[in-house]
Amino acid sequence: MDTLFSAIEILARWEVLAALVIGSVGGVIIGAIPGVGPPVAIAIALPATFAFDPIVGLTALLGIYGSSMYGGAIPAILINTPGTPVNALTTYNGYPMTQRGQAARALGLAYGASFIAGVFSVLCLILLAPVLAVVAPMFGSREIFLAALLGIVLVILAHRGQVIAAGMMAFFGIFLATVGMEPIRYTRRFTFDQGWLAQGIDLIAVVLGLFAISQALVLLIEPDKRPSAGRVAGSIWQGMREILQHKRVAGVSSATGTTMGILPGVGEFTAQFFSYTYAMKTSKTPDEFGKGSPEGLIASESANNAVPAAAMIPLLALGIPGEALTAMMLSVFYVHNVVPGPGLFQNNMDFIVALYLALLLLNIAVVAFLLVSTNAILKIIEIPTRFLGAAVLVLSFVGAYSMRNSLLDVAVAAGFGVIGFVLRRLDLPIVPIILGMVLGDIMENRLRTAMMRVDGPLDFISRPIAAGLFALIVLVIALHLRTAWQQSRGRV
Asked: What pTM, to 2 d.p., does this model score?
């Protein structure tokens, strides 16, 4: 009980509440603008959060992360254009409902499903916090190394049809993490006698380049567009109440999203796939899916909105981000010398509970905001894409320069912006590069520490958790190889 009161005291500070409101409202707006998305917004906002306390910076970033998918459903439903990539599945059933004159109903279903899933996942995590406080200290260096390796494997295998490309991008990220001063003997690695590489390649500059600058270049080069959507007429609240008629789908999809969010590297797309498939197979009207099915809309929106809170578990408990957005948040911890991992649950449980409560308030604030401002947000959708690209480009360069007042960071960000632009044009994955940089650094440090305490390869996996993680890695790879072999036989 003392922990809860302490968490409320942390959260009640005016700057934390202000960050929550700004992040929530900003996330909805960013999510509603096609072509931007939360990775771009978080990449731009990241340098500014370093000046604040960790709880303030993380609350703002969580606001953007957690609320952007609410906003992304608006253009997905109204103009058949997902605001964020994870809202793509929403178009399958949301837009057909709009074509039938049921736009308000579809938006209400999306908001209601997102709210239930968001609250469900946060409550699950609050209840799990005491368990995590007990389990997290059982993870030593070898267990965290294997958990990070599992994350890399899952990230690579999650890119169906692009596994080899994703693997190459992940290893490129791991390589980038090794550039600079080696942490044990302080020798230079891969600096090629360039003094500016001795400090390594800054993660934030890479993030700004790969996500924000590359997307700005895409928006500037493509033909100028100005999407438009008609005013929403009818009661959105009535659509939200309809969720009660589909409690089973909402509940199962929320649980699926929460479970998938905890697993590093899995994320919203896999959660949506399982939830949508379950909803369709158990529906009494499966023929309606893809033609305006309320159950299909609820399944997709519930699954993706349950993930953000759950994705914080591997980040906070083990210091292992599950995807690019939580990898960006990890840098906020490092800047303030707050180390995520077992010690955080032992010594700063009030901080963790405060983050969970912030996520709970976030969902309430976003729904309240959307109920009164959906039609106003439609004006933002109409921003010309080239103007948007120019604004993102300027903000990206300002963010890169503001980190250390260095033009070198701007040059690095610009260089990776070109790399990211080329990768986007070739339809190659970008996210594995960021996760490779973050997880590669974690893996190297933990492996060095663990190897000083083990006698051989078998001793490395002699502890129960380490053995379980190693077995899970082998199982995941074996299942993927089996699936690939079956598909190749099917093609033959």
From this structure: 0.79
